[in-house]
Amino acid sequence: MERTFLAVKPDGVQRHLVGEIIRRYETKGFKLVGLKLIHPTRELAENHYAVHKERPFFAGLVDFITSGPVVAMVWEGDGVVASARKIIGATNPLTAEPGTIRGDFGANIGRNIIHGSDAIETAQTEIALWFNPEELVSWTPSLTSWVYE
Ligand code: UDP
Ligand code: MG
After folding, report:
1. What are the E-state strand segments in the chain?
2. Are 3 and 137 a contacting pair, CB within 8 Å?
3. What is the pLDDT of residues 5-43, one digit of tens each?
4. Given the CA of residue 9, which atom of ligand 1 is nearest to it?
5. Cα gap 120→2, rounded to integer Å
């Protein structure tokens, strides 16, 4: 089953958006299989955003992500990678559609509340970076037959 990595960034945690964000994925019908509060090290943040290391915003981004705790999560479901990104909205909250997390709660590209993996392969890399295998839980939600045909 497809999995994605999501993280409520330090601004989302400080602004008390953790519950609201988890609620959106829970009520959508995705399955939570990993969850932890973690204050990322610089090494973890730099690894996570390695693809952006030549970009002008990289240093500020790493400072921001390491500035406080983040809520790291793994969610599972058919098509969860792309769907989770749609629920997040565009990178810049000012252009993100209303109804998306960034569209509803953000006002600045450098404070856009949540991270979500952009592809299945990226998700696998990010899950392995943030979680040990034993931290991921296999379980059977009792509502499955009401969410999936
Ligand atoms: N970012 C930024 N300024 C920019 C572009 C990106 O601060 O001009 C930050 C922002 O937090 C974004 C992250 O860098 O979420 C990663 O950028 P990416 O283009 O991968 O956006 P995402 O995949 O998060 O939508
Ligand atoms: Mg990205």
Report:
1. 3-8, 31-38, 70-76, 114-116
2. no
3. 999 999 999 999 999 999 999 999 999 999 999 999 999
4. 11
5. 8
Reference 101, options 93, 70, 11; nearest CA is 93
- List pLDDT tens digits, range 86-135: 999 999 999 999 999 999 999 999 999 999 999 999 999 999 999 999 99
Distance CA 110, CA 94 (A): 11
Identify the residue whose C-alpha is closest to ligand 1 atom 11. 110
Q: Say if ligand 1 is within 6 A of residue 7 CB.
A: no
CB 75 within 8 A of CB 3: yes
Query: How far apart, in whole angstroms, are the C-alpha atoms of residue 17 and residue 25?
Result: 13
Q: Amino acid letter at 146?
A: W
